[in-house]
Write a structure and sequence with these properties.
- The longest helix is centred in the first third of the chain and has 22 residues.
- The chain starts with a helix and ends in a 19-residue tail after the last helix.
- The chain is globular and about 50 Å long.
- The chain is of the alpha/beta class.
- It is built from 13 helices and 12 strands.
Length: 395
């Protein structure tokens, strides 16, 4: 088994007393099939392109076993306490008839399971089945008030998603509403908070638009760094009593948000949006100034993505193939991939991110850096370039 230099470096932090656990999650796109055609989707450009074959249940089970075995060996070899989980999504994951069998396979191997869905086909029966299967939480994508949401995801999709949310809450599941921030909805976030409070969901999450796939058509709707900061400042200034008293947490996987002073009602989570999530070590102190990636953008640090055909990528929105689970060893890929090694090497980064003292805990969003640089350079993306929406002042 190859030595994983990244885990060896993180082991040193744990020995130094900084680490308490290591979050490791797999974002698994079970299918590319979807019942919606969202304007900001990063997964498709051509709506008429046929979806390729999905991994079978047997193949998924074998891969889950490989991941479980690898994590077990790494835990022993590097003396690390892993907290493993799967974010199951699509396309629309509920379009797979064997979804509940897949959830059961994950549960039998000790993985926590979270589901990411558009919410439009969640009946009461399905909601109860998700609860009984042991799903820890469900994220439903909501882009704003009804007219905003429907303009992005399709007419009637808001009311259908709200119906799904009610069924999930009725089944006793933890529900996160998640919005993709852009010029289409950034001015409506206070209404999103009100909606979340009115619905009685437990969490409200945000991620940033990645101008890739169909989302490339919305590149002019990307927020400026100043606008992103304004949105987050607004969320931070919300009345703490008003949120906490109603049981609502505002969560985000945005590594930029991890560099802001967060109130107790705003938390970082790699399950809020399954995307450019924050993950890695839960530390007792900051790793600011270091060169060992211990938090921030999760790509290549605390997990990876498996696409419906088995292709592995660093992140669901960073389309850089690392290999395929049907042909390549996950252990080998995690230890030796040149893409992953570059993501873990501060010296390879350019611009503000390469020079930033907060690199170990942030690194910006690698997917946005790649997509924006590709759009600006004739398709030649640089996944190690600076995050164009960074508002953090250099120290």
């Amino acid at each position: 088994m190859p030595e994983v230099k990244q885990l060896k470096e993180l082991e040193k932090l744990e020995v130094a007393g900084q680490a308490t656990r290591y979050d490791f999650f797999i974002q698994w796109h079970l299918t590319e099939r979807c019942n919606l055609r969202c304007r900001h989707c990063y997964q498709a450009v051509r709506d008429d392109a046929p979806a390729g074959p999905d991994l079978s249940l047997a193949e998924i089970g074998r891969v889950m076993t490989e991941i479980s075995d690898a994590l077990g060996d790494w835990a022993r070899n590097y003396r690390m306490d892993f907290s493993p989980s799967f974010n199951l999504t699509g396309g629309e994951p509920l379009l797979r008839a064997d979804l509940f069998d897949i959830i059961a396979e994950a549960g039998r191997r000790g993985f926590e399971v979270f589901l990411l869905t558009n919410g439009t086909i969640i009946t009461r029966q399905r909601a109860r089945a998700l609860r009984d299967a042991g799903v820890r939480g469900v994220q439903v994508s909501i882009e704003g008030p009804e007219e905003v949401h429907d303009s992005i995801r399709g007419m009637g999709s808001f009311s259908q998603a709200m119906w799904g949310v009610k069924n999930l809450l009725g089944a006793g599941l933890t529900v996160t509403l998640n919005a993709t921030l852009s010029g289409l909805n950034a001015g409506r976030m206070s209404e999103m908070v009100a909606l979340a409070l009115n619905m009685g969901v437990q969490r409200l999450g945000f991620s940033r638009l990645v101008p890739y796939g169909r989302g490339f058509g919305l590149i002019r709707e990307m927020l400026s760094a100043r606008q992103v900061k304004g949105v987050y400042d607004g969320l931070l200034s919300l009345n703490a009593e008003g949120l906490g008293g109603n049981g609502l947490e505002i969560v985000t996987g945005d590594p930029l948000a991890s560099q802001m002073k967060l109130p107790s009602q705003m938390k970082l989570s790699h399950h809020e949006a399954g995307g450019n999530a924050t993950g890695g070590l839960a530390t007792g102190g900051s790793a600011t100034g270091g060169c060992t990636a211990a938090g921030g953008c999760a790509a290549g640090i605390s997990g990876f993505t498996i696409l419906s055909d088995g292709t592995m990528t660093p992140c669901r929105r960073l389309p850089l193939p690392l290999g395929n689970v049907l042909a390549d060893s996950i252990r080998e890929v995690w230890a030796t991939s040149t893409v992953l090694q570059a993501l873990r090497d501060k010296g390879r980064y350019s611009g503000r991110c390469g020079a930033c003292r907060r690199w170990a805990d942030c690194r910006g969003c690698r997917a946005i850096a790649y997509a924006y640089s590709a759009a600006s350079n004739g398709g030649r993306g640089d996944f190690l370039s600076e995050d164009p929406q960074c508002f953090i002042e250099p120290e």
